[in-house]
Design a protein that fits this description.
heteropentamer; A mainly alpha (about 325); B alpha+beta (about 525); C mainly alpha (about 350); D alpha/beta (about 325); E alpha/beta (about 350); D: about 325 residues; alpha/beta; Rossmann fold; eight-stranded mixed beta sheet; four-stranded antiparallel beta sheet; 12 strands; about 30% helix; about 20% strand; globular; E: about 350 residues; about 35% helix; about 25% strand; binds adenosine-5'-triphosphate; binds magnesium ion; membrane (chain A); transport (chain A)
């Protein structure tokens, strides 16, 4: 039992290592990315530049620099930013995590609930008007660029209709920690939640419907009917339960990716200081330590999500549980 | 009655933090405004509104010393009784250590400003062992510090008055302090700083006002500087009273609304800065002077001004120095009616010059950064170039690398969009820094002479004038004006405009005080 | 005995007189799907409209959508109206571009540079469509090559490629795309004697194309693996057909179906990605436009002239929606799984 | 029929294991012993039937014989040539001489290719025929399998199961092989069609002098077609001999049980005396010790669980792998 | 009027299907799958339905269960179960009947059981759906049932998932589930097709026992004549959506009166006696529902084809046996005689 876990861990480490190398490589392939000049200031003399370069170790071979960065990131854990010098990277990432978690978690609740409702209604009325309407709406949701939805939502709630009773409660953009002011936390996040959830409601609703419809063609549904079960029970306990296997694994992967920074666009549009925005800012300012840290963080979540999904898969689908 | 306005919290906001708060390293106007009220140098710019904010007054020194030894030696007497926020006294040793530290921490201008100090060369070579022996000498008994320069420097006091010259305790680590503040001497001290979130300033318990000009006491109790929101959201927050002031310029989209709804919250002040398009005089097509002139004639500075926010927020400019700056003499040849003022582009002349240059059809890439109005200015410049007959394209790159990217000759940048804000009120800060042979370093990311312009004759004039300035500032300024005009005639740039500073403040913020050097003085405004 | 005579009966389900290949069957199915046909029509209209951009710019909007027009004016209902209108109320700060006129000129209004948004949208549509189309081609081709090689050759090659895909897979798409964009857009690419300038459309095409490779390559690899083990490939092996011929004749045609099914969906995805990158100003470079960059332009005018951001957003939605509908239709028509299910019953 | 003394195909103690399971899951990789110590000789002109329960390794053996799978151990000789170690490339010329017909007439025909293409594929890759030759040969083949040559331009999905199986057969005989391994070629077909195909196999053998290894799970089909029959159980041959002898006087208890379990459409004999085996076949990943059948064997004794019985000759031209072979007459039906 | 109707209930008729037609609306018109299928199942009887793939066997059973959910299906006729017409029941009434009165098992026990629940759970579910049982009692009953079906270590097996069991055990679990509420009628749709002969024999044995142990009637659907011969009382042969022949097993298997039944019986290679040199076989393949010939659907493949075949023959009765063939109109056809003459002709 231990061996597979170790293998799994090794595989995760490998993937993270690969990603860190890719990021490091990309960064140093960027012209002008040499942080020395930026660190040195706007009219530094070449001598000062050389000093800075040396003191930051930028004159060392890339592998050495790589190892140093990783050492500082994982072992001494005191990697600091190139842009906001002295700013420790790890606390910054840790601090932005709750923001991203708040965003993604709330959105996830919305999208799971609505997607399940939507999928079930559509599957139950398959071919009918509600089905077609819901599937169309789902497709519209999938087709909307999230940043655009966010912008339009901002336009409506922050400006155009901010003074009507509908949206007067919407506070300014930003994030208030749950611990500090739960009401504010909620109010500030509702619109981002919905914005982020729209895409996934469409996606999951459609996938769930397809799975349910497929499940309905399975023999075991016929068996369940032959057992004299009610349609509702057949839907929930048999069709939905088996369809949830794909649903949950999709959810796991998406949730992991979002927590890992995939909600970047939403965070940028709604000015939520989460990991996605942190990553984006770091990428924009070519702040290598931050880029490394956020990308490691995000790949960690993706990799962990992959592993969790595997476990969840086995938990949901006993066929997978047994080594075949 | 000023006492009625004491207390409260001043809420400042900016889209992002500006890096380290080490006074010897930070080189951003955003945090210089903060350091302006937390730390002091031997001398300081006056903490007042208006023109006199460009004056240097004694700060930690008791007086501005008279030059000795033909301007090569200055003896400062250190003020007694001033304490750091850690409770220790400011001593001559601290001053010596501070100037050593400038080299030890690789201050960006160590090599360009402070290299006049005796012993600086050795410090530049091996910063770790910097002593500045014979350059900065403390005399504890007399409570003085003596500076020995290798040559006279008319701008030496200015260089001491910027935050680089802020005195820090001798035991301050000789490395970038990063996010931890240096002990303060001013009325406020930074108590916490998280670049992702905010900076908090509280009153410095050891501060006692010693000179109202140099470092007056502050009104508010706390200053909370929040980082993160986009300029749009900053505007909204100020409108709603959640913030008092924003560092970023408000998006032009919001200007009409702000102007009509909150006219009293808007303060517009001149800036000593220019927006310009440096042209690389060493590679095609702008190694051809006619081509450069054509661009200058064709550039509709009114359009550029409109992009920036309209005529109230910027003034067209053709020259190197911004209006009102020491040495400024209005001069604009690149207009319909050449003279002192730009009126309209002269397309006919531009096209003729273009034809003469033989550069029609040449490909040109404009490099702009991705912040604020720069992409829009770049886009506009591309239109102008295309109209002239170039095959122009725009390349927008991250603001973080654009500035170094356009400096490095290896990148073969032909033309770009850039800005320059003064460091201190001396014409050399534009002319000498931006267009002298000495600031052109081919192949280096640090080559602030972006045009790569190097005219031996003009360079000689500049050097001569720098000496003149030590003794006769007035004559020097007149000469700077002439040099400026000569440079404009060579057209290494197409200057676009000089922006103005628009400060948008909350309704409750009063006693708005604007220093030409450091903009809004946080210690002087009221929120109660 | 009777069965010695030739068996000439064919199930009459194959009603067609001429033999119909799987391709034609699928196409027939596709063209019978009303939603899919509707989607195709919409797409064709959009493509035609975008192709007509120069005509529109010249004859309808009468402006150059790539040249700033900061001090121009147009005639509207007999009055001359400035395109960039300086604010006169209050302090008179700011300059606002003209809003939607709902006339030929400046139909959707002007952007910050005084350019006709409607005309730019048509040009931007060209880029958006081009990028998403060719990025799809890049993704599908690379994915097909990698997936097929990995799945067909197996062994060490497969392990290496699969690991590589794993790494890319664990890299959130946007992060990878943004990283690559920032690098390449600041520099361009130099491959030997060829230089791809940083404002070339090839860059976003390559970047978007590459980041989605694992999403397609993985299923392709799986499919090729199972095809490689399928009875008919075994049969071909048994007949002594060389591996390469098996690959070309037996495996690739089946993979092609999958690619076709993926194509519209990938294109929809790519269009969204392209717009997102452009929105983050690391996609199409100004003054060139794409729907994403126009939204970005509009973002700066959201409070005064929201139409500049809304119109291209709607264009994206309609196009992506049509692509997704087409994708559904194509999947229904081509998905071999659907066919298998019919067979089994 | 007289059996020549020299086998056409000779397999000597073949072993084949598959790796199943995943490194990343509980249980890890397991070894599935699909074939253990299987020896078989096929003589020219005969039809060897191969029967046994699902999963006992019939297909695996068939595929190993044709080197579609690599064997782990053992030796395969085809026409006096050791083909065990040949690479697929080296095997290619030999393919013309040994062919396979697959069980599933649906999955063994590439749905994207025309019937003519499918059948012509071997002709083309072996390059012995010119284009017009190919056409002529195609017609000939279609006639041989009783299909109209008009069908050549059609796609497999338009055909019924029986017709598809004919296409598969036509493809297999296209190069006039001398050996055909038919892997349950009739199992997927309806009874009425099954008879047509069985007849076709027999006709072809007569006309072309083919040799078959005919895999089936239906004993009556094997009885109809095979000259010799091998009975497999859990990866090994338990009994091998002339079909009639094996089926009517089984010597191995498993063969006996298998035969007695076959339901027969005999209207009178309502319920025949049956020895119904209890339990299910054990897992091939974890085969029982000793005689693999001992867990279900009605006559097993202690020795059976300890000692592996070897396949040994019984005299009447057959061999059995059992410590206690049945008295042939006891198991035979009247 | 067929004689069946008169003898409907008196001799213990459980299920009476009359003129059952099932068709599907499709783009290419109406596809007629079942045409006028009528039959009865008596109490404690095993009725086998045989026929080739696609002949409509499953469709018949699904129609009885009212499990044809396709909205395009058109079902006419009557299905009378214990005096009630199933086609007229409300969905709720039908649901109460399903599983309790009429139970069904399917060909492939792997796909026919929900893969994510243990078999114990699935049996429980059915018990609890129809009987007011506590979970514990239901589980106990489920284990008991599994034991009765000959599942070794039933308590342990109840905790297993379908995929963890072998095919035979799965099929037993299916049967246990079907029998859990003591149904009067068990419909078994090819219950042994997926199994090996040795396991199949076990299952058939079990089916035979049902009648004695549970008193159920069984409708056994298969395409294997051997299975028919082994277990059934009466046989119904279907061909392309119609009933070709039906009657008591010994009669139908011993003396078929429809050429299709005859062909079917002859196509099976015999296990005993002389091996035919060539297997007699039916040429061609069964027609698809859309491609059914006019008249007798078997006509194109029939070696006794005659002019009358152009019109559809009704079921002709000969003794206990009925066949839908014009040859049967005049009584029992003399196959033996016919075939002997043909054989002689061929040999010559
Ligand atoms: N490629 C493979 N990988 C792993 N296991 C395999 C593979 N092929 C066959 N097996 C396993 O080997 C064993 C023998 O399989 P084989 O297909 O030879 O049986 P069979 O007798 O042909 O069965 P059937 O009658 O079902 O076709 C089975 O347990 C099967 O699961
Ligand atoms: N929803 C449907 N629409 C149209 N035709 C259908 C539908 N469902 C089944 N059929 C057709 O009905 C016919 C009868 O099917 P049925 O399943 O009853 O055959 P069967 O006798 O049970 O065959 P098998 O032995 O293969 O199970 C088949 O030809 C099938 O293709
Ligand atoms: Mg097999
Ligand atoms: Mg069926």
């Amino acid at each position: 039992m231990l061996l597979p876990i170790l293998r799994r861990l090794a595989e995760m480490l490998f993937v993270m290592f690969g990603i860190s190398v890719v990021v490091f490589g990309i960064f140093f392939a960027t012209p002008g990315a040499d942080p020395a000049a930026r660190i040195a200031g706007r009219n530094a003399t070449p001598e000062v530049l050389a000093q800075v370069r040396h003191s930051f170790g930028f004159d060392e071979p890339l592998p050495v620099q790589y190892v140093k960065v990783m050492e500082k990131l994982f072992i001494s854990r005191d990697l600091t930013s190139f842009v906001n010098r002295g700013e420790k990277v790890i606390p910054a990432v840790v601090e932005s995590t709750p923001v991203t978690l708040s965003l993604v978690f709330g959105a996830a609740v919305i999208w799971v609930v609505f997607a399940i409702i939507m999928g079930m209604i559509a599957a139950a009325t398959r071919g009918g008007i509600p089905d077609r309407l819901l599937m169309f709406l789902g497709l519209v949701g999938i087709s909307m660029p999230v940043f655009w939805v966010g912008s339009v939502a901002n336009l409506i709630t922050q400006s155009r209709f901010h003074h009507t009773f509908l949206f007067s409660w919407v506070p300014g953009l930003g994030y208030t920690p749950l611990t500090q002011n739960p009401g504010m936390w909620f109010k500030q996040l509702v619109i981002p939640w919905i914005t982020l959830a729209i895409l996934y409601i469409g996606l999951y609703g459609r996938v769930l419907r397809a799975n349910l419809v497929e499940a309905y063609q399975e023999d075991f549904i016929r068996t369940a009917r032959a057992k004299g079960l009610s349609e509702r029970r057949i839907m929930v306990r048999h069709a939905l339960r088996t369809s949830l296997i794909t649903f949950v694994s999709m959810f796991g992967l998406d949730f992991g990716a979002l927590v890992g920074g995939g909600a970047l666009l939403t965070e940028v549009v709604f000015n939520l200081p989460g990991v996605g925005r942190l990553t984006y800012v770091a990428l924009q300012s070519l702040d290598l330590p931050f880029i490394m840290a956020t990308v490691m963080y995000s790949s960690f979540f993706v990799v962990v999500a992959n592993a969790v999904v595997d476990i969840a898969y086995a938990w949901l689908d006993p066929r997978v549980r047994d080594a075949r | 009655q000023a006492a009625d306005h004491m207390g409260g919290t001043l809420n400042l906001t900016g889209a992002s933090a500006a890096g380290t708060i080490d006074p010897q390293i930070n080189y951003t106007s955003q945090f210089w405004s903060v350091l302006f009220i937390t730390n002091d140098g031997l001398v300081a710019f006056k903490h007042v509104s208006g023109e006199s904010s460009n004056d240097v007054v004694p700060d930690l020194a008791t007086a501005i010393p008279a030059p000795q030894d033909g301007g090569k030696t200055y003896v400062f007497t250190i003020r007694k009784g001033v304490k750091f926020s850690n409770g220790k006294d400011v001593t001559p040793d601290d001053v010596v250590a501070t100037f050593q530290r400038i080299f030890k921490v690789s201050n960006p201008n160590a090599g360009s400003w402070y290299n006049v100090i005796v012993g600086a060369d050795a410090c530049l070579k091996t910063p770790a062992t910097c002593t500045l022996a014979g350059g900065v000498v403390a005399d504890d008994a007399a409570n003085t510090v003596t500076f020995h320069l290798t040559q006279p420097d008319s701008e030496f006091f200015y260089k001491l008055a910027t935050p680089f010259g802020d005195i820090v305790p001798a035991d301050t680590a000789a490395k970038d302090l990063g996010t931890s503040p240096a002990p303060a001497t001013g009325p406020y001290m930074i108590t916490s700083y998280d670049p992702q979130k905010n900076m908090i300033l509280k009153r410095n318990p050891y501060y006692k006002e010693w000179s109202k000009d140099a470092q007056p006491a502050g009104y508010v109790d706390t200053i909370n500087y929040t980082f993160g929101p986009k300029p749009e959201d900053e505007v909204t927050a100020i409108e709603n009273g959640q913030q008092d002031w924003m560092f970023d310029s408000p998006p032009s989209d919001r200007l009409p609304e702000m102007a009509s709804k909150f006219p009293n919250s808007i303060h517009i002040n001149p800036l000593f800065a220019i927006y310009y398009a440096p042209m690389n005089v060493n590679i095609a097509p702008f190694n051809n002077k006619d081509a450069r002139l054509a661009v200058n004639y064709a550039l509709n500075r009114k359009s550029a001004v409109n992009i920036y926010g309209g005529p109230r927020l910027a003034v067209p400019n053709c020259q190197v120095l911004p209006p009102g700056f020491p040495g400024y003499k209005a001069y604009c040849p690149y207009t319909k009616n050449p003279g002192s003022k730009w009126s309209a582009p002269d397309m006919v002349k531009a096209k003729a010059l273009m034809k003469a240059s033989g550069q029609i059809g040449q490909p040109v890439t404009v490099i702009a950064d991705d912040q604020n109005v720069d992409p829009a200015l770049g886009t506009y410049l591309v239109s102008v170039l295309n109209e002239l007959g170039f095959k122009a394209t725009l390349k927008v790159i991250s603001a973080n690398i654009q500035f170094t990217y356009i400096q490095n000759t290896k990148n073969n940048v032909q033309i770009s969009i850039s800005q320059w804000y003064q460091d201190y009120p001396a014409a050399s800060d534009f002319i000498n820094v931006l267009l002298s042979c000495g600031s052109f370093h081919p192949g280096s990311d640090a080559s602030i002479n972006i045009s790569g312009f190097c005219d031996k004759g003009i360079d000689a004039e500049i050097n001569k004038n720098l000496i003149t300035a030590v003794t006769d500032q007035k004559a020097a300024n007149a000469e700077w004006g002439k040099i400026d005009a000569e440079l404009v005639d060579q057209a290494p740039w197409a200057t676009m405009f000089t922006p103005k500073q628009l400060d948008f403040v909350s309704a409750r913020l009063k006693n708005f005080t604007f220093s030409d050097q450091f903009h809004m003085i946080y210690s002087q405004v009221w929120v109660q | 005995m009777s069965d010695a005579t030739t068996d000439a009966t064919l199930p009459k389900t194959a009603a067609a007189e001429t033999p119909e290949g799987p391709w034609r069957v699928a196409l027939r199915k596709l063209f019978r799907d009303r939603t899919a046909v509707g989607a195709i029509i919409v797409l064709v209209l959009i493509v035609l409209a975008c192709c007509a951009a120069p005509l529109y710019a010249k004859y309808v909007s009468q402006s150059d959508p790539f040249q700033s027009n900061l001090d121009g004016s147009i005639t509207l209902d007999g009055n001359s109206v400035d395109i960039m209108q300086a604010d006169t109320a209050g302090l008179g700060l700011g300059v606002t571009p003209i809003g939607p006129t709902w006339h030929g000129q400046y139909f959707f209004g002007a952007d910050n540079q005084g350019r006709d948004v409607a005309a730019r949208m048509l040009y931007g549509g060209q880029n958006s469509l081009l990028i998403s189309f060719f990025a799809t081609v890049v993704t599908l081709v690379l994915a097909a090559i990698i997936g097929t090689i990995a799945g067909f050759i197996g062994g060490l090659t497969d392990t290496v490629l699969a690991r590589l895909l794993d790494v890319l897979w664990a890299f959130p798409v946007y992060l990878l795309a943004i990283s690559l964009s920032i690098v390449f857009i600041s520099k361009g690419i130099q491959i030997g004697p060829f230089t791809i300038p940083s404002n070339s459309l090839i860059l976003p095409i390559m970047i978007i194309g590459i980041v989605y490779v694992p999403y397609v390559a993985r299923p392709i690899r799986g499919q090729v693996m199972s095809l490689t083990r399928s009875d008919f490939v075994l049969a071909a092996r048994c007949l002594g057909v060389p591996s390469f011929r098996i690959l070309v004749r037996d495996i690739l045609p089946n993979v092609t179906t999958t690619l076709i099914v993926f194509a519209p969906l990938m294109m929809a995805l790519n269009m969204l990605t392209e717009s997102a990158l452009s929105f983050l100003s690391i996609g199409v470079q100004p003054p060139n436009a794409s729907w994403g960059t126009i939204i970005l332009d509009g973002e700066d005018l959201l409070y005064t002239q929201p139409m500049v951001a809304i119109a291209p957003g709607l264009a994206i939605i309609i196009t992506v929606l049509a692509l997704n509908f087409l994708g559904d239709g194509v999947r229904d028509a081509f998905d071999p799984r659907a066919k298998l299910r019919v067979k089994k019953d | 029929m007289t059996i020549p003394s020299k086998p056409m195909l000779k397999a000597e103690s073949l072993h084949k294991t598959f790796k199943v399971g995943s490194r990343f899951r509980a249980g890890g990789i397991q070894h599935l012993h699909a074939l253990s110590d299987v020896s078989l000789e096929v003589y020219p002109g005969e039809i060897v039937g191969l029967v046994g329960e699902s999963g006992c390794g019939k297909s695996t053996l068939g595929r190993c014989l044709l080197r579609l799978y690599d064997v782990d151990d053992g030796r395969i000789t085809f026409k006096d040539r050791d083909i065990t170690g040949l690479s697929q490339r080296e095997l290619r010329p030999l393919r013309a001489d040994m062919q396979m017909v697959f069980q599933d007439p649906y999955s063994s025909l590439n749905p994207r290719r025309r019937v003519g293409d499918l059948i012509a594929e071997p002709l083309r890759v072996h390059g012995k025929h010119s284009a017009s030759d190919v056409q002529a040969r195609l017609r000939e083949l279609m006639e041989l399998v009783n299909l109209s040559p008009d069908f050549l331009t059609r796609f497999p999905h338009e055909f019924s199961g029986g017709q598809r199986q004919r296409i598969g057969i036509a493809r297999a005989i296209a190069l006039s092989p001398s050996l055909i391994v038919a892997d349950e070629p009739v199992s997927a077909l309806d009874v009425s069609v099954q008879a047509q195909i069985v007849n076709l196999f027999m006709d072809l053998q007569e006309k072309l002098g083919l040799t078959y290894v005919f895999i089936a799970h239906d004993l009556s089909v094997v009885r109809q077609i095979a000259t010799r029959t091998a009975v497999m159980y859990l990866g090994g041959i338990v009994e091998l001999g002339e079909t009639d002898r094996v089926l009517h006087r089984p010597a191995h208890p498993y063969t006996a049980a298998l035969i007695s379990a076959v339901p027969e459409p005999d209207p009178q004999g309502n319920i025949k005396a049956r020895t119904i085996l209890r339990g299910e076949p054990p897992s091939p990943t974890n085969p029982p010790s000793g005689c693999r059948f001992h867990t279900r064997c009605p006559v097993a004794e202690a020795r059976c669980s300890a000692e592996v019985p070897l396949l040994r000759a019984l005299g009447d031209n057959r061999s059995v792998a059992c410590h206690f072979p049945l008295d042939g007459s006891a198991a035979a039906h009247a | 009027m067929p004689a069946d109707l008169m003898t409907a209930n008196p001799d213990g008729t459980l299920l009476d299907v009359r003129d059952l037609c099932v068709s599907f609306r499709s783009e290419r018109g109406i596809i007629r799958i079942l045409e006028n299928v009528s039959f009865t199942v008596r109490e404690r009887e095993i009725l086998s339905i045989v026929g080739e793939s696609g002949s409509g066997k499953s469709m018949t059973s699904l129609a009885v269960m009212r499990l044809i959910t396709d909205p395009n299906a058109i079902i006419t006729g009557s299905i009378t179960y214990k005096g009630r017409d199933l086609l007229k029941l409300s969905p709720k009434e039908m649901r109460a009947l399903r599983g309790r009165e009429i139970a069904m098992i399917f060909q492939d026990p792997m796909t026919a059981m929900t893969p994510v629940y243990t078999i114990g759970w699935q049996i429980e579910e059915q018990l609890r759906a129809h009987q007011n049982l506590s979970r514990r009692a239901a589980r106990a009953r489920a284990v008991e049932l599994l034991g009765e079906m000959g599942v070794p270590a039933p308590a342990k097996a109840a905790g297993r998932f379908p995929h963890q069991l072998s095919g035979g055990l799965r099929q037993r679990a299916m049967i246990a589930m079907a029998l859990s509420c003591n149904p009067s009628l068990l419909i078994a749709d090819e219950p042994t097709t997926a199994l090996d002969v040795t396991v199949q024999a076990q299952i058939l044995e079990l089916l035979l026992r049902l009648r004695t142990d549970f008193g159920s009637s069984v409708m056994l659907i298969t395409h294997d004549m051997g299975v028919v011969a082994t277990v059934s009382d009466r046989v119904m042969v279907m061909y392309s959506g119609i009933i070709a022949e039906r009657g008591p097993k010994p009669d139908v298997l011993g003396g078929p009166t429809h050429p299709y039944t005859l062909g079917l019986l002859h196509s099976i290679p015999p296990m005993h006696g002389e091996k035919p040199h060539r297997l007699p076989s039916i040429p061609g393949s069964p027609p698809a529902p859309m491609g059914r010939p006019a008249g007798c659907p078997f006509q194109p493949r029939c070696e006794f084809r005659m002019d009358a075949c152009a019109s559809r023959p009704p079921l002709f009765r000969n003794g206990m046996q009925e066949a839908s063939c014009w040859l049967a109109e005049k009584g029992m056809p003399d196959w033996a005689h016919e075939r002997a003459i043909r054989a002689a002709g061929e040999a010559a």
